[in-house]
Amino acid sequence: MENTDYQTVTDFNNEAKRPSGLIALCILTFLGSGFMFLSQFFSFVLYHEIPDYLEMAAAMNGGTAEVYQSSIDMFVNTPRYVFLVSALIYLCSVSGAAIMLAMRKIGFHIYAIAQILVVFLPPLLHKTPFGLGNIVLGFLALAFVALYSLFYKKMK
Q: Is the N or the C terminus of the chain less surrounded, counting Cβ atoms within 10 Å?
């Protein structure tokens, strides 16, 4: 005969469950930093072809050619290695979020360092002054690090 007297185990896994806020932050990080990683990586890989694509777009859009020309000039004046360094920093950001999703504290430290580097390193490598974009990026990075820190005590 079969034993049909089953006991329900409500909390079989004693490990701390992932908070939904942490999951939401990680998803936002995967989307934002993941897109930026791809953008910077392909800018590095296609460094010599991108100005041609921008010139082609400028030719197709005659009225806004000066906007494209300023983009081409800015891109060409950026050393190629800056895109690789930026891609690696964004990869560290995504990796830190993935490690935090696994509830490990080291992920927070990796993510926080990556965010500091995202804000300060590319402008320093390119030797450009900090502008409004850097300030907005800095506040966004600070906000995400602060939000992630709310979940730090729950991580191992």
A: N
